[in-house]
Specification:
Blueprint: E1 8-11, H1 18-26, E2 33-35, H2 38-43, E3 46-49, H3 55-64, E4 78-81, H4 83-86, E5 89-92, E6 97-98, E7 103-109, E8 120-125, E9 127-128, E10 143-148, E11 150-151, E12 158-163, E13 167-174, E14 177-180, H5 188-199
Parallel strand pairs: 1-2, 1-3, 3-4, 4-14, 5-7
Antiparallel strand pairs: 5-6, 7-11, 8-10, 9-12, 12-13, 13-14
Length: about 210
């Protein structure tokens, strides 16, 4: 499917990084729509769930928009970015809030240890764990830009991992859902490649 045939919906989850995500997609020839409209989201070829802020505030925004029940039932490719990735899990220790329940695990705080800064902010290395089309043309050991204080555990959903005090999942996948803990829109060439790979996932999930 050509870029001009794609319809990309960015879910309004109350995050603050929307413009950078929009600009990253525009560089790939996409004009996404920023929306909380259920029909627009349901009928988009690809869906982006961004997020900067707290899990509780984002879940409250999704609840008010009537999207908490919709998102887990989506069948097209969906990508969660940063907090958006964390919302794919069952719950978060940040405010002890239930999340979307797509991935059966809990988001926990990064450890507070001597010599570690919280939030984990800056460039860090990622190691590949499982093969996935989201990583096409991306080499093991790639660096990406992180800003987060909570993280997802390792598990069968882990596609790539990173470390800040402990190992955590930096990319996850479950069914048609992909989550990226770091910010692809701020991760230079690697981030653009990841977003480009995401836009190619439609044939693999039967959209």
């Amino acid at each position: 499917m050509a870029a001009n045939q794609l319809s990309v919906a960015i879910i309004n989850s109350g995050g603050a990084n929307i413009n950078s995500v929009v600009f990253a997609l525009e560089r790939l020839g996409i004009e996404p729509v920023f929306t909380a409209d259920r029909d627009q989201i349901r009928h988009a070829s690809h869906v982006v769930l961004p997020g900067v802020g707290s899990a509780a505030a984002a879940m409250d925004q999704l609840q008010q928009s009537g999207l908490v029940e919709l998102i887990p039932d989506l069948t097209q490719p969906v990508i969660g970015i940063c907090l958006g990735m964390q919302l794919l899990f069952e719950s978060s220790a940040e405010g002890d809030v239930p999340c979307l329940g797509i991935i059966p695990a809990r988001i926990e705080a990064l450890p507070v240890e001597a010599g570690l800064t919280i939030p984990h902010m800056g460039w860090n290395r990622n190691a590949l764990v499982n093969q996935h089309a989201i990583l096409s043309d991306i080499e093991d050991g790639f660096y990406a830009y992180f800003v987060h204080s909570y993280a997802a555990p390792m598990g069968p959903w882990t596609v790539a991992r990173s470390r800040h005090g402990r190992e955590f999942s930096s990319i996850v996948s479950h069914r048609n859902f992909v989550g990226i803990q770091f910010h692809p829109e701020r991760s230079a060439t690697v981030g653009q490649q990841l977003l480009s790979n995401f836009l190619r996932l439609q044939s693999e999930v039967g959209v």
